[in-house]
Write a structure and sequence with these properties.
heterodimer; A: about 140 residues; alpha+beta; 5-stranded mixed beta sheet; globular; B: about 200 residues; 3-stranded antiparallel beta sheet; two-stranded antiparallel sheet; 5 strands; disordered C terminus
Chain lengths: ~140, ~200
């Protein structure tokens, strides 16, 4: 966990200070998160936009590149942005010195509860869940 | 061929451009280029470094067109540009500049908000006082519910009670026609409204 937290800090710092070493894979659904481009997503992360980050796990990159030694590992985190829960996964490629933003999508069953004022509004929570379900369908 | 692959380190990435349709609020969808850098060695692709700039440039004309559309829609609803500027407290001729393409991201979001919820202008004009905002939300919800009732040709009565000083004021709005169908949309609205209020 400690190593993953250190990598997370370094990743956010790279997004803030050296965005040219952060590359985004097409699996990141940045438009579904209202970002105009992947640059906006990197700026958002660098500006500490990910709230209530929660470490999920570190695992080998399943279906990652076969010809890379040592094999690449993926760090994944849960986060919130306002009432919306998300999932973020990134990779540090030490050979090329690039950060790879592998995944960004909704977290349908977040481990953390939404912030209280929203959780106390059942109508709003129901509506948000419906919007997210619609996004997932699309 | 461009640079080194950030995923595997092999040299020789090639660029591939496709077009995708992007939703523009209150306008037609826009077609924008999506440029990826593809590595034939590891098979991975990534967004090209200059992809963001290309997208922004491609979106500019679509956004200007949407600004025209939103202001035209608001004018048809009786919200002139002069009224919007006064109500929102904007300098005169601001909307003219927006129409000419000089519009920031923040201004675009304000315009979209006003287009989606025109009563925001009345709230702004009233200094965003809580009681006025509450009344406007209830009135807008009632109005939209009644419009749905009219569309589906069903009877509907919306009753809202709220306190003004020491008095309780009851506002009743009706759409009274012969009920022919119980549309699902209306059922949902009717269930949602008491909680929303």
């Amino acid at each position: 966990v400690h190593d993953a937290d250190c990598r997370l800090k370094a990743f956010i710092e790279a997004c803030r200070g050296t965005p040219s070493i952060v590359r985004v894979l097409p699996e990141c659904k940045f438009r579904a998160w209202n970002f105009g481009s992947h640059d906006d997503l990197i700026r958002f992360i660098g500006n500490d936009g990910l709230e209530r980050l929660l470490y999920l796990n570190t695992a080998d990159w399943k279906n990652g590149p076969q010809n890379v030694v040592p094999a690449l590992t993926v760090d994944s985190f849960e986060f919130y942005s306002g009432p919306r829960a998300g999932y973020l996964a990134f990779v540090w490629q030490r050979n090329t010195k690039f950060w790879l933003l592998k995944s960004l999508h909704d977290q349908p069953r977040p481990r953390q509860m939404p912030t209280l004022p929203l959780a106390e509004n059942p109508l709003l929570m129901k509506m948000l869940a419906q919007f997210q379900a619609k996004d997932d369908e699309e | 061929m461009t640079s080194t692959c950030p995923v595997c380190g092999a040299s020789g990435l090639r660029k591939e451009t496709t077009y995708e349709s992007i939703h523009i609020p209150f306008s037609k969808d826009a077609s924008v280029p999506r440029t990826l850098e593809v590595c034939d060695h590891c098979g991975f692709d990534l967004y090209a470094e200059d992809e963001g700039e290309t997208t922004t440039a491609a979106l500019a004309s679509a956004i200007t067109a949407s600004v025209h559309g939103m202001l035209d829609d608001l004018a048809q609803q009786g919200h002139s540009m002069a009224y919007l500027e006064r109500g929102l407290g904007l300098p005169q001729r601001t909307l003219g500049r927006w129409k000419g393409g000089e519009i920031s991201a923040a201004a675009l979001t304000l315009l979209r908000t006003v287009r989606a919820f025109p009563f925001v202008v009345q709230a702004a004009e009233a200094g965003f006082r809580t009681q006025t905002c509450d009344a406007l939300i209830v009135a807008e919800a009632a109005q939209r519910l009644l419009q749905k009732a009219k569309t589906h040709n069903v009877t509907c009565r919306v009753e809202a009670r709220y306190e003004v000083g020491q008095k309780t004021v009851t506002v009743v709005a009706k759409q009274a026609t012969v009920p022919t169908s119980g549309a699902p949309v209306l059922t949902n609205w009717a269930k949602a409204l008491p909680e929303a209020v």
